[in-house]
């Protein structure tokens, strides 16, 4: 048996697990000592510490050259850096859509139209529809999701429940939409036709979403919401501060057209931010003088401040003040630091060969569908923790398990569905994953705070485990095998 300290080209399982265990132990200790809310503030230090440990172990205990570590970081950065650009534009979008009156108008209209008792159900269902149409959970949450956070908070709902309903709906669409990049990626990497993949997804997705909608309906029915008088007071505060006019809806309309035309997410967010900024100067002149000043030069400087730094708006209502204040790009910087830290950790785990050692050990003795599905779900969660990125997790998971599923005579669409159920929808539940970091920042709710209320996201891997254990529609038909062999 090789010694723990024996130098080898491939790191041992014990060595490979050390950085992961160090990361998880540090996160657990932080939660115990400072509470779950501190994870967001200290995660990047813990990730950097785990990264340093991985590098030291790789250099001191293996013969793998440093250039492999660099290659792993490069591979991770290729997936992560586009998310950083999107994060920057989400910061500008949230600021300009708030100050231009888009989000306040949606809150105003929502308070007038939505039944408070059905709010969670409505938020989840509407976000699901929008996400299916757009194919992106990030854009859905950054736009209509922010508006629902404001509406629900005013109605008296716990912000964690609101975030859970929004995320459940948004990630339903991200999982099953033929326009979703994760859906297309999972189908492509497992070799399954896209719509075959989506139809197979529905076997676990529909039960999970049905239960989620039922839960949100029940919670809404038993939640004490604000009185009609309080809602009227909030609406009056909004309408006295912002110029609420149907023309405001042109701004999200522009975004909807770009999404329908399948423009890139970063372009949609950038153009939508500019439209929001223009809307601020055109539609909210009463705010321009107070925030920017009166001259053209002050306008330019004020526009930069709105996009980059924090801006406060006084409405005469403390709750509404907290909702309509903005932080711009500056507010996204802590999230960007965490994303970069997660990128470095994922990169060195890949480059050092430690991630490969762990996944190879897991798949070595897998033969039955039940064990395969269980291992894939566990690996999906593990990869989301290690790589900090759902795209890398899907690609690595598909490459690791594809041949194993084939040897076990199991349908490849089962692998695609299991990866979606354990990677795509759970990435938002991990505090240092790019999805969890982004959505907690955009919605203003810590990842571990909203986690228990993301009913759809929690139930998706549970449903896929149940399907795998029952063995329903799992095996490849003998005729299909003969045809493939021919």
Summary tags:
disordered C terminus, 24 helices, 77% helix, disordered N terminus, 486 residues, globular, mainly alpha
Explain what the structure shows:
It is a single chain. With 486 residues, this protein is an all-alpha fold. 77% of the residues lie in helices and 0% in strands. It has 24 helices and no strands. Helix 5 packs antiparallel against helix 9, helix 6 runs parallel beside helix 21 and helix 8 packs antiparallel against helix 20. It is globular and about 65 Å long. The two termini are 44 Å apart. The N terminus and C terminus are likely disordered.
Itemize the secondary structure elements and their pairings.
Blueprint: H1 13-34, H2 39-61, H3 66-99, H4 102-113, H5 119-134, H6 137-155, H7 159-176, H8 181-190, H9 194-221, H10 228-241, H11 250-260, H12 265-283, H13 285-291, H14 296-308, H15 318-324, H16 328-351, H17 354-363, H18 369-387, H19 390-407, H20 412-424, H21 434-443, H22 447-450, H23 455-470, H24 478-485
What portion of the residues fall into strands of 2 or more residues?
under 5%
Number of strands: 0
Helix content: over 70%
Q: Sheet bearing the most strands, described?
A: none
Number of helices: 24
SSE series: HHHHHHHHHHHHHHHHHHHHHHHH
Measure the end-to-end span: 44 Å
Overall mean pLDDT: 82
Structural class: mainly alpha
Q: Uncertain segments of ≥5 residues (pLDDT<50)?
A: 1-7, 478-486
Molecular shape? globular
- Provide the gyration radius in Å: 24 Å
């Amino acid at each position: 048996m090789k010694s723990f300290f024996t130098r080898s080209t491939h790191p041992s399982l014990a060595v490979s697990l050390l950085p992961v265990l160090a990361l998880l132990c540090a996160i657990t200790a932080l939660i115990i000592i400072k509470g779950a809310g501190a994870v967001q503030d200290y995660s990047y230090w813990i990730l950097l510490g785990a990264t340093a440990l991985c590098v030291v172990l790789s250099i001191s205990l293996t013969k793998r050259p440093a250039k492999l570590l660099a290659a792993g970081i490069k591979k991770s950065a290729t997936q992560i850096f586009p998310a950083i650009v999107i994060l920057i534009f989400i910061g500008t979008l949230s600021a300009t859509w708030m100050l231009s009156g888009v989000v306040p108008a949606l809150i105003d209209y929502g308070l007038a139209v939505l039944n408070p008792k059905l709010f969670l159900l409505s938020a989840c269902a509407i976000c699901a529809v929008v996400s299916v149409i757009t194919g992106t959970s990030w854009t859905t949450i950054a736009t209509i999701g922010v508006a629902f956070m404001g509406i629900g908070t005013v109605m008296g709902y716990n912000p964690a429940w609101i975030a859970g309903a929004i995320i459940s709906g948004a990630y339903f669409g991200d999982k099953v939409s033929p326009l979703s990049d994760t859906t297309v990626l999972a189908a492509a990497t497992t070799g399954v036709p896209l719509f075959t993949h989506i139809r197979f997804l529905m076997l676990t997705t529909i039960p999970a979403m049905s239960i989620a909608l039922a839960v949100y309906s029940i919670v809404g029915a038993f939640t004490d919401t604000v009185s009609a008088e309080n809602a009227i007071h909030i609406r009056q505060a909004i309408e006295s501060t912002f110029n609420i006019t149907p023309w405001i809806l042109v701004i999200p309309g522009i975004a909807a057209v770009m999404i329908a035309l399948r423009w890139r997410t970063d372009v949609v967010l950038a153009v939508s931010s500019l439209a929001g900024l223009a809307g601020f100067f055109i539609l909210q002149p009463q705010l321009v003088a107070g925030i920017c000043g009166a001259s053209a030069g002050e306008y330019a400087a004020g526009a930069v401040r709105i996009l980059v730094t924090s801006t406060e708006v006084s409405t005469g209502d403390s709750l509404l003040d907290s909702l309509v204040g903005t932080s711009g790009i500056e507010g996204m910087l802590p999230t960007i630091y965490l994303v970069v830290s997660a990128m470095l950790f994922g990169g060195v785990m890949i480059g050092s060969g430690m991630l490969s050692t762990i996944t190879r050990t897991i798949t070595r003795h897998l033969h039955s569908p039940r064990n395969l599905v269980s291992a894939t779900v566990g690996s999906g969660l593990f990869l989301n923790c290690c790589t900090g990125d759902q795209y890398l997790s899907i690609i690595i998971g598909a490459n690791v398990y594809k041949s194993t599923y084939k040897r076990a005579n199991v349908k490849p669409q089962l692998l695609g569905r299991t990866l979606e159920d354990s990677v795509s929808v759970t990435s938002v539940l991990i505090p240092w994953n790019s999805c969890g970091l982004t959505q907690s920042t955009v919605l203003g709710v810590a990842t571990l705070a909203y986690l228990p209320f993301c009913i759809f996201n929690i139930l998706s891997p549970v449903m896929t485990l149940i399907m795998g254990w029952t063995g329903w529609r799992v095996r490849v038909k003998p005729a299909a095998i003969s045809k493939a062999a021919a």
